[in-house]
């Protein structure tokens, strides 16, 4: 089983089922056994749903014996779900201990739409993955479950905020998982862990039922070991949802599924990509932006805090990947005038901070527990406010403004100057550059540095990273895909990212697949079952 199931793909797993090599129960139990063996060290899975998983596996085994049985696209596939995604009857911790207070737990009344879609496709949930509180970190350390380690070396960070899912999937604790991404939180962690992650065009996949960090930037998508598996999962996840207005009308705008139809060798031949200069220069747009009422000094401080230089070893790894793209038939342009630093400066004016509370209130209204369906009701029930990171308040954003007033986006008279106008301006710059250079997309490092060692200080303190320069993708809602592009000399993974025009998610999948087939960079980690924590806590029980 270890030989057959380690790094098994969805297609191969279905072949094993058709050949009657294994039952679904046996496959699920194999993954649960791995969680039991390794989770105490890597701490990727916060809640293990063993009983429910085995019950569902048994049901599917019976189902498979019925006449005319036709399996769904993810039938019998063990998956994990990130802890900010609602699962009926389980506590949606979002990594925060405050949603776990006895008597005040945020128990989901029903599945988030994407969880319902995964179940309908036949996937089997084996666990809920750890994440930093509210997804507000580039590493994975939570008040709910502690620290998740990198599968390739437990001392190092798997990135964040989807670090629990990436460690679970790359470690073969599950075949697939979902991540969420507000500034880089799918794409950066998969780059630390030799995986594929898709940030869909915003509106292709519903984010309803996912506890928000910033609902104007949030997104969700698949995390997988291969591009093909990510394509299968995206096909399942995509679709319009009345609970998420951004998805309405997406079916007529998006490249049609199934996304496996874009898995074609030679997809890179003749394609033109360019490297954004601001990423090579480390000029990250300010996360969540700087509002118009900020002083020039506050803007300068926020820009300085956002600066994230590209490490020399990461630049070298990226240039090797560029050579591989060119060897596969693509043209890659590198020039200091291609999306220069001014692009990042302009993007820093897209301010979402006044609308944080609205997003949290909307989530709690539909997916909160009986005790509270808004931030105000949480405070009344618990006696404490929700943290400002999800409802606004003092010290909001990187410039720590004390006077960002919360408003409703749809009725705020300042929404244009805060958000819509600068976003439209930056989107026009993005599209104009694609047009000017006749580009298919942009390519760049998915991460600005190697995974960092969390057992010792980095630059004088325990790291809050690793970091990337990719939050502008969230600001624009354009699609991007991150995928393996080799290893550093110390054996830790490196990944690259490609973005393109809205609704061209299928094209991205084709390009990543072609690169994957040319390079075959995926290599599973060698795990240890004893590590830094001799008395690691057991996972939660549902």
UniProtKB/TrEMBL annotation:
Residues of the Amidase domain: 26-279, 308-508
Enzyme class: hydrolase
Family matches, as Pfam families: Amidase (PF01425)
Keywords of this entry: Hydrolase
Record Gene3D superfamilies: Amidase signature (AS) domain (3.90.1300.10)
Top-level taxon in the UniProt lineage: Bacteria
GO molecular function: amidase activity
EC number(s) reported in the record: 3.5.1.4
InterPro entries reported in the protein's UniProt record: Amidase_dom (IPR023631), AS_sf (IPR036928)
Stated name of the protein: Amidase
């Amino acid at each position: 089983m270890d030989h057959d199931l380690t790094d098994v793909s969805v297609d191969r797993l279905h072949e094993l089922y058709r050949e009657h090599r294994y039952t679904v129960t046996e496959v699920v139990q194999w993954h649960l056994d791995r969680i039991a063996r390794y989770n105490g060290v890597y701490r990727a899975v916060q809640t293990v749903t063993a009983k429910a998983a085995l019950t569902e596996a048994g049901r599917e085994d019976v189902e498979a014996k019925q006449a005319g049985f036709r399996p769904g696209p993810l039938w019998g596939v063990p998956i994990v779900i990130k802890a900010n995604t609602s699962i009926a009857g389980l506590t949606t911790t979002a990594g925060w201990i405050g949603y776990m207070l006895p008597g005040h737990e945020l128990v989901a009344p029903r599945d988030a739409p994407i969880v319902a879609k995964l179940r309908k496709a036949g996937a089997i949930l084996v666990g809920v993955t750890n994440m930093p509180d509210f997804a507000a970190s580039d590493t994975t350390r939570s008040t709910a479950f502690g620290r998740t380690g990198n599968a390739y070396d437990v001392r190092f960070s798997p990135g964040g905020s989807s670090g629990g899912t990436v460690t679970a999937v790359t470690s073969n604790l599950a075949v697939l998982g979902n991540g969420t991404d507000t500034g880089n939180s799918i794409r950066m962690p998969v780059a630390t862990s030799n995986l594929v992650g898709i940030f869909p065009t915003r509106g292709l996949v519903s984010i309803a039922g996912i506890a928000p960090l910033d609902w104007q930037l949030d997104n969700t998508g698949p995390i997988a070991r291969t591009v093909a598996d990510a394509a299968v999962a995206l096909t399942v996840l995509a679709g319009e949802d009345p609970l998420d207005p951004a998805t309405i009308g997406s079916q007529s705008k998006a490249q049609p599924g199934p996304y496996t139809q874009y898995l074609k060798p030679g997809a890179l031949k003749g394609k033109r990509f360019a490297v954004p200069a601001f990423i090579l220069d480390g000029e990250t747009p300010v996360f969540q932006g700087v509002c118009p009422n900020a002083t020039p000094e506050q803007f300068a401080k926020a820009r300085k805090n956002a600066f994230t230089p590209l490490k020399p070893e990461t630049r070298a790894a990226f240039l090797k990947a560029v050579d591989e793209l060119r060897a596969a038939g693509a043209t890659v342009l590198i020039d200091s005038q291609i999306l220069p630093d001014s692009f990042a400066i302009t993007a820093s004016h897209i301010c979402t901070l006044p609308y944080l509370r609205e997003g949290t209130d909307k989530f709690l209204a539909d997916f909160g527990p009986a005790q509270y369906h808004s931030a105000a009701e949480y405070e009344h029930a618990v006696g404490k406010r929700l943290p400002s990171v999800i409802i606004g308040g003092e010290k909001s954003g990187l410039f720590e403004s004390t006077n960002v007033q919360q408003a409703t986006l749809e009725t705020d008279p300042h929404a244009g100057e805060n958000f819509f106008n600068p976003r439209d301006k930056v989107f026009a710059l993005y599209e104009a550059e694609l047009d000017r250079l006749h580009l298919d997309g942009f390519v760049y490092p998915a991460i600005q540095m190697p995974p960092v060692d969390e057992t010792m200080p980095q630059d004088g303190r325990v790291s809050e990273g690793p970091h990337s320069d990719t939050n502008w993708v969230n600001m624009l809602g354009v699609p991007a895909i991150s995928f393996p592009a080799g290893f550093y000399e110390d054996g830790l993974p490196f990944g690259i990212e490609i973005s393109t025009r809205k609704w061209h998610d299928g094209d991205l999948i084709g390009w990543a697949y072609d690169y994957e087939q040319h390079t075959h960079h995926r290599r599973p980690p060698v795990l240890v079952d004893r590590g830094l924590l001799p008395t690691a806590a057991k996972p939660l029980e549902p």
